[in-house]
Amino acid sequence: MSPGGAVTSVTVQGGDISFHIRLADPGAKVSVGKLRHERVPPTRSSLLAAPAQRRRMKGLFVLLLAQLCSASLVPEREKDPEYWRRQAQETLRNALRLQRLNQNVAKNLILFLGDGMGVSTVTAARILKGQLQHGQGEESLLEMDKFPFVALAKTYNTNAQVPDSAGTATAYLCGVKANEGTLGVSAGVTRDRCNTTKGQEVTSILHWAKEAGKAVGIVTTTRVTHATPSAAYAHSANRDWYSDGEMPPDALEGGCKDIARQLVENIPEIEVILGGGRKYMYPKNVSDVEYPYEEKHRGTRLDGRNLVQAWQEAKPRGKVTGTLWGLLSTCGTGEGCWHSTSAVSTSCWWCVKHLSQHKEEDLRPPPPPFSFGGERMSPTVSLSPGLFEPGDMVYELDRNNDTDPSLSEMVSVAIKMLQKNPRGFFLLVEGGRIDHGHHEGKAKQALHEAVELDRAIGLATRLTSTQDTLSVVTADHSHVFTFGGYTPRGNPIFGLAPMQSDVDRKPFTSILYGNGPGYKIVAGERENVSAVDFAHADYQAQSAVPLRQETHGGEDVAVFARGPMAHLLHGVHEQNYIPHAMAYAACIGSNRGHCNAAASPATPLLLPFLGLLLLLLC
Question: What tens digit of pLDDT does each residue of 521-538 get?
Fold first, then answer.
């Protein structure tokens, strides 16, 4: 923007015509000033396709002009200085109320992890949320925006400036920074080297909560053996060892276990596991019950084990059979929900959908026809995983509401199940496909995943109390994702910037990536985005550097906190500080001395007064 921020320009080239639109002060009503045309030296490409290009670009010009004239209007209330003063004063009053710190012991802990949800993604998701609600977007609030305490976390791995999701997961779950690509182990472990693992295992906050007698759960939109969830229960020199079918011979011979096996064996009594990844639980080439003819979805295990069956057999009798989660687990066994194509409409999803919309009393066995295979559903908290896809869950934009649960629905069920434990619970919730959308250059997929995570955060807020539940929202790392181009107020987040490049005379979208698959050269020039559907869910935004997969970013990520001891998350922290602060708030793990002292804080102070009272009475 020009000095003082007074002028915004739009330039659209159509053949040999260049239109210049000058918009006066974006802070007032839009005024369209001088419109002129000038002769531009023709290029070879413009001579070859001048008529069609001219029509297309003139149409684009009209679209941009209409967009700017409508989007740049300032709401009337915002023109009044008193509006901003009142808003600031209300924020000040809320801040002053925070001086009364919530120092309760946290009975429940919820960690929301937006994989790849850097600050630019948070901001863009906020705008998207507002625009989905028919607002301009910038003024809207995410649920996480309402958390009173905010910090920054430094995301680097011990051997990487720009981190990966495994090393960061070890930090924010286990409290120890680690090397990239490794899970649940210290920095003494080298990626891919199984023989460096022994003695270097570190435990997670999920493990600490389980040791304290709390219920624990994992909900993710990725496979349950992916980097984020697996750091809660596994110890691996390679994050990609999902099953033994992905492990090299030397690792198998060295006695290292694949991640799926560790899910079953390391912490066997995880009450709730919801996500994808069932193919890693079944023998190699076993057909998937939902996609029987797709080879990529077949089982991957070389040891011939059925880990879902092993999971169930390891449980006390009656803990699984006939329970809701036993039925949920049949998504992976083919013995019920996915038994036939006709059963898809009453699939495992129904259990999640039903529970997510009802209260605690609705966990009781439902009457027919809502029984499965003639079995009535027990309200007992069971220990079976609900695995809804062979790999990762489907993107939120592509999700079939009749067969696939949303993240917020899974979170609702998880909380209602975990709340049965009188000692409280720990729940890890991952919006994991934000990261996948960015890696693919598909910003629309990524941002809708972020909005769905925020929806789950709001739902969890309504199901719990800030008096006894510490909720933390953060990311493992950022991405080289940005949006800019001097867009006016209310500009569609997936729309065009209101200007052309002054170098190649082509328009560009506001959203761009530093690198990734969106780098495209057409006829020796940057692709003209006006010729493609840049609002499509799978559109790959343009990038500066060509890569098959876009990369992570290295900047700090935000940490939002609310509930008991949320004020411990403040300022700038190392990422591994997060689980230590959460454990302190809940009196679990190693920092429990303050909890014992809090049990009888007045006793030492009362003794002198009691002694004085006795002297006076005597």
Answer: 999 999 999 999 999 999
